[in-house]
Every structure is written in structure tokens, then in C-alpha cells.
């Protein structure tokens, strides 16, 4: 009996496939995070294995029940076997810790602290979240993660999302900071996959953002290059007018908001509303969209980031820089 949890179908049966809906309050969902053991170098695996054994022994010393020294009678048993031992063998606990360490290594989020008087941030912790850590990568993300001073994290949409569409984060910097070759090499080195996102497949980079915007005319549904004449097919100026208003009014206002230490929720709403009015017209890759996105993320950070204002902290950071 019993409800069980996400790693199990009931109270006892092991679930081999992820559930269709994850419970963000259930940490056991990390059982479905990738560990990439088979792709790691032997030296890295040895280092992680030693760390897992050490942590298991620490648990043993603190009284966590486990069979540490003589495991010969159950060493080759499957941990998911129904004929499980009364006391869990230390090797099983170490194996779980080893998986957890490897999953943490490629699925964590950095928790940072900002220093407003120095205009810099410093990472002081890492965290894994039951559902957010399951989100896949794109160099052209549609959501952003914000870790708060309360120890929780949430995702914010960076563009309108249709029901059923995949939510995608950027594990590294977005595509306009590096070439496709450099992005793929960096992701392969740390996360062990070859990126096939839309930005990498189409070889987007900073140079992709040069020139006039490409706009979708909502009157005739044709894509055209920004010009003062409007859509060359139907002569509609709606898309051009919306873009001009966004560029001349919304973007400067967002920059003005960020001159303060902390932005308001009303200003965050203004940033969202402004984007909602123009994004349906703008075609990717878009220079104005990414300009807005960076400002929007900065506004989020100014509201929710961990902040340190103690004078000693500023002195320590400046001395170590």
C-alpha cells in the first residue's frame, strides 16, 4: 500500500520511465536526471567514486543504518530486488551517492550573490531542483531561471509559449556570445552532448543579428525586411510601427529602470507587456528581441537576486579581484 513517490509506480514497483507530470515538491525526480557515467574520463569517475565512498562512511559514522564491512551475501543482488536486505549495504548507498554527485555535476544551477556597489556577482552555492533541473538546453532559450534570496527558483518565459511546446533553458551563454563551434565544444566538454538547437543547426552567432529586422505582416502573413515603406506585399505599416515604438520607447525605459538598484514589479510588468506587443511581429534571430531579453533578465535579477550590502563584503571582493 501507500502512494509511493515519483521514482516508483506504486509503493514498491520501480518506475523505468519518467511520469508524465512531475511534482516539484518531490526531490526523487532527480532519479531521472542524466549522469553520463559512460562518457566521463576514468580519472573523473575515480574522483567521484572516492567522494561517494567518503560521504557514505560519514553517514555511517553518524549512525545511518547500513551494512558496511561484510556485504558478500548481498553484494551481487539488484538494489531493486524484492528480496532486499533488512539493512542497506554501504555499497548501495555509495552507488546512490555516486549517481547523485554525477547528476549534480551536470544539472546544477549556480546560486549567486550580487554586490550592487561593485556591479558584480559571485557564485556561493549550487543547487538541483526537482523539476527545473529536468529542463533541456537551447542556445536560443525560451525561459530563464531565477534563483531567489529565499532559496527557491522559478522560471520566467522569455517569449509567448504555446501549450505543449517544450520549455528550454540556456546552460551556457546565449548564441550571440559565441560561435556555433565554440558553443558546441563547450557544451560537449561539460554536459556531454552535441547541441542540435535551432541556433546551432542554423549556425546563428552575433553576426546573425546585424542588419534590419525581419518582420511578419499580420495582414497578409508575409515576412519582410524592415523598411519605412512597410510590407511590400500589402503596404501595411502595423509591424513597422510596433517595432519603432518598442525600439524608441520601451527599450530606453527599461534601461532607465535599471539605473536604480532595485526595479519594481510594475516595471517588470511593463517590460513583459511591451514585449508581448512586438514579439508576434519579430522573426528570429532578432537583435531587438535579444536586447530586450538581456534587459528583462537584469530587471528580474534586480528584484529577486541575493544581495549583499555589508561594507566588509565589498572590501573582500575588491581585494580578490
UniProtKB/TrEMBL annotation:
Q: Which CDD domains match?
A: SET_SMYD4
Is the Transferase keyword given for this protein? yes
Kindly state which keywords UniProt assigns to this record, in alphabetical order: Cytoplasm, Methyltransferase, Nucleus, S-adenosyl-L-methionine, Transferase
Heme is among the record's keywords: no
The Gene Ontology CC terms held by the record are: cytoplasm; nucleus
Q: Could you state a single Gene Ontology molecular function term?
A: methyltransferase activity
Q: What is this protein called?
A: SET domain-containing protein
Gene Ontology annotations of biological process type: methylation
Q: Which Pfam families does the entry link to?
A: SET (PF00856)
Q: Which PANTHER family match?
A: SET AND MYND DOMAIN-CONTAINING PROTEIN 4 (PTHR46165)
Instruction: Please give the chief subcellular localization of this protein.
Output: cytoplasm
Subcellular location(s): the record lists: Cytoplasm; Nucleus
Q: Which residues form the SET domain?
A: 119-172
